[in-house]
Design brief:
The chain has a single domain, classed as Protein tyrosine phosphatase superfamily (Protein-Tyrosine Phosphatase, Chain A, Alpha-Beta Complex), CATH 3.90.190. Helices cover 30% and strands 12% of the residues. The chain is built from seven helices and six strands; from the N terminus they run E-E-E-H-E-H-H-E-H-E-H-H-H. The chain has a six-stranded mixed beta sheet, with helices on both faces. Helix 4 crosses helix 5, helix 5 packs antiparallel against helix 6 and helix 5 runs parallel beside helix 7. The protein is globular and about 40 Å long.
Length: 204
C-alpha cells in the first residue's frame, strides 16, 4: 500500500470571514503550470452533487477535490471515484477525536491504497502560513492523480487551494480569492497563507 504521512507543526492565528461576494473573471491565458492540475478558469468551481457522506460541500477544480470531512462510506467510494490521494488539513486532536471522526482515517486510507498526507491547520500549534501552502504544493506536485483535500466543512481546504493558486501558479490574488470565495473562504486566513497583505476587488 502506498502511504505518505506528513505531520507539520505551526503556531495560532485568529480567523475572520468576509460576507462579500466576488465575481469570477475569465482569464484569456492560463499559466502553463495550471495544466498540471487540470484547471480551467472559464467557470466557477464545480459542485460535486452526486457524492454523499461529506460534512459540508465538495467541489472539483481540475484533478483536485476540495471538501469537508468525508465519512467512512464516502472514503470507501474514493477508489471508484478515481481518488488516489487524500490531504487532511485537520489537526491531530481533531483527527484522533472519535466523537468527531468515528474511524481511523489514515488507516482506512492506507487499506484503500491511497496516498495520505496530514498538513494540520488551526489551533495554537498550527497557524496559517506560506510554509503550509508549500507543503501542500509538494504533495500535489509529487502526485499526478486525483487528490481530495479536506478539513471539517471545506473552509480551511478552500483557503489552502486558493492560496496554492497564488503562491505556486502565479494566479492574480483577486481571481484566486474569487475562486476560493465560491467555496466559502474569508480574507484573513487567505492573506496569512499567501504571506502578504490582501488587496482584492470585492463587489456586492
Amino acid at each position: 500500500m502506498r502511504r505518505m504521512l506528513l505531520i507539520l507543526g505551526f503556531a495560532a492565528v485568529a480567523l475572520a470571514g468576509c460576507g462579500n461576494r466576488t465575481q469570477l473573471r475569465t482569464a484569456s491565458l492560463l499559466p502553463s503550470s495550471l495544466e498540471s492540475v487540470g484547471l480551467h478558469l472559464a467557470a466557477v468551481p464545480d459542485t460535486v452533487g452526486d457524492w454523499n457522506g461529506f460534512t459540508g460541500g465538495i467541489h472539483r477544480e481540475g484533478r483536485v477535490l476540495i471538501s469537508g470531512q468525508p465519512g467512512r462510506d464516502a472514503m470507501l467510494e474514493m477508489p471508484s471515484r478515481g481518488v488516489t490521494a487524500v490531504i487532511n488539513l485537520r489537526t491531530p486532536a481533531e483527527v484522533e477525536n472519535r466523537d468527531r471522526v468515528p474511524f481511523d482515517e489514515p488507516a482506512l486510507a492506507d487499506s484503500l491504497g491511497l496516498v495520505y498526507a496530514s498538513i494540520p491547520l488551526g489551533g495554537d500549534e498550527h497557524p496559517y502560513t506560506p510554509a503550509a501552502v508549500d507543503s501542500f504544493a509538494a504533495v500535489v506536485d509529487a502526485h499526478p492523480g486525483t487528490i481530495l483535500v479536506h478539513c471539517t466543512v471545506g473552509w480551511r481546504a478552500s483557503h489552502m487551494w486558493a492560496a496554492y493558486l497564488v503562491r505556486h501558479h502565479g494566479m492574480d490574488v483577486s481571481e484566486a480569492y474569487a475562486r476560493g470565495e465560491a467555496m466559502g473562504i474569508g480574507k484573513m486566513a487567505f492573506a496569512r497563507l499567501i504571506g502578504r497583505e490582501l488587496k482584492v476587488e470585492l463587489k456586492d
